[in-house]
């Protein structure tokens, strides 16, 4: 088998009718041995089916906030810009990818999409809703880690990074509140914020709240996340 085909979801602007993705994701997937392709959000169910028939793995990229109505809450003032087309597309894509036992890596918003797709919820704004939190919206370059996360010992993530503590970047004002019953927590920051989740059984499905695609060049642990994901997509 050649390189596994990795579908990467994209950002999208309704106003400018543009699809956008940071090249970080493309470069990380390619460096780890995958063949990156972009999946622009669409409404058509049959296109979603066709995407899923062709890709070997799914990478959910970062982005804005998920519409809180989807997890049963009205929006707080801090809730950011919404993208209904992208939300609907990604939630449908994820549910059906899981039925097909595809391997999935969710990054930042992607981690939150995984949790919401299977019945979890989010803090709409960590600083307002959770006391004594660390700085999770870093004012440092994206390639620079600013806080640590503790990896749960019995997790797949631990077997990937083989370290109890790793340093990560942090560019999120939201985080997982209630974890979906399909997932377990794989990492926390020191303030108790959930920084990674993974599926309890079945296919490889990992969500990380940080951005390993900006760290892998200087961090073996973060590169290993991509390598393991691509490896799982070969199976
Ligand atoms: Mn963080």
Low-confidence stretches: none
Give the helix proportion (percent range): 25-40%
Can you tell me the CATH superfamily? Class I glutamine amidotransferase (GATase) domain
Tell me, what is the CATH class? Alpha Beta
Structural class determined from secondary elements: alpha/beta
Give the N-terminus to C-terminus distance in angstroms.
Answer: 10 Å
Order of helices and strands, N to C? EEEHEHEHEHEHEHEEEEEH
Q: What is the overall number of helices?
A: 7
CATH topology: Rossmann fold
Spatial strand order of the main sheet: 4-1-5-6-13-12-11-8-9
Throw out a few tags for this protein.
binds manganese (II) ion; 235 residues; two-stranded antiparallel ribbon; alpha/beta; 23% strand; 9-stranded mixed sheet; 13 strands; single chain; Rossmann fold; globular
Task: Offer a quick outline of the entry.
With 235 residues, the protein is α/β, with parallel strands linked by helices.
Structure description:
With 235 residues, this protein is an alpha/beta fold. It contains 7 helices and 13 strands. The longest helix has 16 residues, at 84-99. The chain is globular. The protein binds manganese (II) ion (MN). The site of manganese (II) ion has 7 residues, from loops.
